[in-house]
């Protein structure tokens, strides 16, 4: 096994053309060996979209063992690699990536990153969450997805928000019917008012599928995360809420939008 993985890694490192690099990364990814994770992640920094796609697919297949190194990559300043890493995190759905996806979906400057993160928020591995954390996490995901659906200027990101909201609605059918109603109300608004025909069509599809497939099947697989992992996730969620309150009070654009609306209303009544 060691000889095989070494051979596959060397093929990636020694590839001297774009085509050979893509083939080498595809072969490494298809091996589905955890030892391949560092090389697959390194591939995300190469200027080769085909190789990056193959690496992302391989990392998604490997799942949770890849998450710590993907999160470490986000601290670096290679924005191309960062966007691919976010795509991988969104595809894996590991709860350790939740807070990262929340931040990227609502505030990242790159629409490709927002698009991937938004889709990922709806398809988290909710069945891994302990009961005391599940409601908090899903509430944060709902708020973020609604914000993106209502505020993002890029139609492809709003389209992904519809996909994420549909998946979340199916996950909360029995536990939070009031949230599901909130999602359905958002869909009604978008189906009529969204500027993009593609987004409106995706909303119509989501509405139809929610009627015929109202609830997703919950997988019965225990979480591999430790008690410390869950504590870290909870602390990050709490930090995020505190930052949101501070920004809204001190400098968030929504605060000034509300102030401007209030002034305009007062002026019109004068």
Automatic annotation (TrEMBL):
Q: Which InterPro entries match?
A: ARM-like, ARM-type_fold
Any one cellular component term from GO for this entry?
phycobilisome
Which keywords, in A-to-Z order, does the entry hold? Antenna complex, Phycobilisome
Instruction: Cite a single Pfam family from the UniProt record.
Output: HEAT_2
Q: Which domain of life is it from?
A: Bacteria
Protein name, UniProt field: HEAT repeat domain-containing protein
Provide the species name: Tumidithrix elongata BACA0141
């Amino acid at each position: 096994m060691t000889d095989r993985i070494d051979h596959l890694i060397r093929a990636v490192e020694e590839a001297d053309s774009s085509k050979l690099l893509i083939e080498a990364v595809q072969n490494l990814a298809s091996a589905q060996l955890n030892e391949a994770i560092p090389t697959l992640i390194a591939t995300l920094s190469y200027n080769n979209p085909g190789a990056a796609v193959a690496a992302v697919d391989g990392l998604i297949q490997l799942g949770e063992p890849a998450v710590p190194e993907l999160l470490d990559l986000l601290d670096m300043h290679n924005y191309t690699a960062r966007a691919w890493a976010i795509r991988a995190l969104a595809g894996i759905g590991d709860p350790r990536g939740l807070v990262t996806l929340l931040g990227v979906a609502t505030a990242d400057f790159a629409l490709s990153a927002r698009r991937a993160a938004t889709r990922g928020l709806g398809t988290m591995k909710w069945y891994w969450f302990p009961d005391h954390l599940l409601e908090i996490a899903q509430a944060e995901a709902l708020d973020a997805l609604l914000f993106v659906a209502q505020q993002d200027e890029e139609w492809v990101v709003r389209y992904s928000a519809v996909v994420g909201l549909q998946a979340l609605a199916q996950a909360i059918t029995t536990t939070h019917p009031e949230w599901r109603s909130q999602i359905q109300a958002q869909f009604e608004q978008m189906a009529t008012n969204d500027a993009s025909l593609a987004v409106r069509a995706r909303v119509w599809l989501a509405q139809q599928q929610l009627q015929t497939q109202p609830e997703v099947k919950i997988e019965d697989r225990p979480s591999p995360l430790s008690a410390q992992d869950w504590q870290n996730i909870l602390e990050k969620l709490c930090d995020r809420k505190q930052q949101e309150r501070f920004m809204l009070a001190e400098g968030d654009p929504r605060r000034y939008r509300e102030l401007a609306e209030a002034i305009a209303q007062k002026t019109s009544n004068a």
